[in-house]
Specification:
Number of helices: 4
Number of strands: 35
Strand order of the largest sheet: 1-2-35-34-33
Radius of gyration: 23 Å
Shape: globular
Structural class: mainly beta
Strand content: over 45%
Distance between the termini: 33 Å
């Protein structure tokens, strides 16, 4: 294979109001199958990893897009199936992986200073625990699990020498209550038991802060929010309330809240509900075929800030878009005319709500995801192939999978605009960064192996142009 050559140049092109500021171009003979990225939030450095044939090539850049180093890794794992996070120590990046059953773990090491790469299995296994999720925060890797039949969350903090430090978050016996106010263990309302195999599993909606999260992700009943060095888990198993568990990763202090949802008089049959956490506000939605309520709650005071009610006979008075049905089996895109149609559709699947803020305006989208496999290992465009088979990077690059869900949606939804006091305001929905990236993608049909990440306030888009054998990174 010919030597790969990196070309750096800046270019300013304006299309559809979007400035394409800087490009990193990589020419190669081999087809780039997939790409993924790591961002060092302390320095602004970032790495892009390209999977080509039977190897992975890593490239490290500083915040000004200057190359720091590059590595070709041919020692790909055969046992591990999923990339779940990373750890950055200067010019050394550790990529954490696990097996499909979530019990065994390993790392793929890229040392850009020495040019060394290596795969090794960690002396660490989950025993009697179920893997929940993992995150990378302040260049430290954290793994979350729940011991079976417990009200406890285990947090494994991996330090520089890869020795996990266990932090046990133990909740009191009556910390969690069911709809009849009876004590219930934590695992009882976040795990799902497979009807055929009887195995316990969990599907987590991993939320990217202030990004246009899709209804497919936000309609999950159990979600993880990560902002700065705090994580919050929310559970919407019950239509009566939302549970919030917040953990400070600096000192491992934690708190729980049980926030009541809006309610309807009469029968509870057919109710759908969910929530979305944005900054210090919890947005809750509950609906059936006859009515819908949207509530905003201040988390600090637990006071209701605003609430909207809508009956099926009414005009949808707090929306700013058409009611959109997208990705259906027969109609790829259709607009619904009546509120009753929307309520009927949203009540047929998992309801969800998503909040995004741009230009000081809240964009609140509510709807439901249409029928899709509820499988944490299947996310469109989020796999990396290797010698050992398929390596999945969906949990690893949350923003990329969020974009995939946004652009490959199968949902019914509507969006409204609201001011800082959550009053509905008139106006048109402005294009967000995902819309702009999607426009670029649709103009270049030969694009493959996409990855998206944020560096400061910029959205960075990496992709492979198949017809030119060129990998590019641009800034929006």
């Amino acid at each position: 294979m010919k030597k790969l050559v990196f070309l750096f140049f800046a270019i300013s092109i304006v299309f559809s109001g979007v400035a394409q500021k800087k490009i990193i171009g990589l020419t190669a003979d081999a087809r780039v199958k997939e790409s993924f990225n790591v961002v060092d939030k302390e320095t602004g450095n970032f790495a892009v990893f390209l999977e080509e044939n039977d190897y992975v090539r890593g490239f490290l850049f500083d915040k000004n897009y200057n190359e720091i180093g590059r590595i070709k890794a041919t020692d790909l794992p055969s046992k591990f199936k999923t990339f779940i996070g990373y750890q950055v120590k200067g010019s050394k990046i550790n990529l954490f992986m696990n097996t499909q059953n979530g019990r065994s773990y390993g790392i793929m090491i890229f040392d850009f200073k020495t040019g060394f790469s290596h795969v090794q299995e960690l002396d660490f296994k989950l025993k009697g625990e179920i893997f929940i999720e993992s995150i990378s925060s302040n260049n430290t890797f954290y793994l979350f699990s729940i011991p079976k039949n417990s009200s406890q969350i285990n947090i494994y903090e991996f330090n520089e020498n890869l020795t996990p430090i266990l932090h046990e978050i133990k909740f009191k016996e009556n910390a969690f209550l069911d709809r009849r106010d009876r004590p219930i263990k934590l695992n009882k309302f976040i795990f799902k038991r497979d009807a055929i195999s009887g195995k316990l599993s969990i599907v987590t909606g991993k939320i990217e802060h202030n990004a246009p999260n899709s209804i497919e992700i936000t309609s999950k009943k159990f979600k993880l929010y990560h902002f700065e060095n705090k994580v919050t888990f929310t559970s919407d198993r019950y239509n009566e309330f939302t549970y919030l568990i917040t953990i400070d990763l600096d000192n491992y202090k934690f708190s729980t809240k049980r926030v009541l949802k809006p309610s309807f008089d009469g029968s509870r049959l057919g109710l759908k509900s969910n929530s979305f956490l944005f900054d210090n506000t919890l947005f809750q939605i509950i609906c059936n075929t006859k009515q819908l309520r949207l509530r905003m709650v201040d988390i600090a005071t637990e006071k209701i800030v605003k609430e909207y009610s809508l009956m099926k006979e009414e005009t949808f008075y707090f929306k700013n878009t058409a009611i959109i049905l997208e990705g259906g089996d027969f109609d790829k895109y259709r607009e619904l005319d009546k509120t009753a149609q929307f309520l009927r559709k949203i009540s047929q699947a998992n309801a969800g709500i998503s909040v995004y803020k741009q230009n000081k305006v809240y964009e609140i989208t509510f709807g439901s995801s249409l029928d899709k496999p509820d499988n944490p290992y299947i996310i469109i465009g989020a796999t990396v192939g290797g010698i050992g088979g398929v390596l999945i990077v969906a949990s690893f690059n949350t923003l990329t999978s969020t974009f995939n869900g946004y652009t490959n949606t199968k949902s019914v939804r509507v969006t409204g605009l609201f001011d800082d006091d959550f009053n509905h305001i008139e106006g048109r929905i402005q294009k967000n960064p995902f819309d702009k990236i999607k426009e670029y993608y649709e103009r270049n049909k030969n694009i493959r192996a996409q990855t998206i990440f944020k560096n400061n306030d910029d959205f960075i888009y990496g992709f492979y142009k198949q017809n030119q054998d060129l990998y590019e990174v641009i800034k929006f």
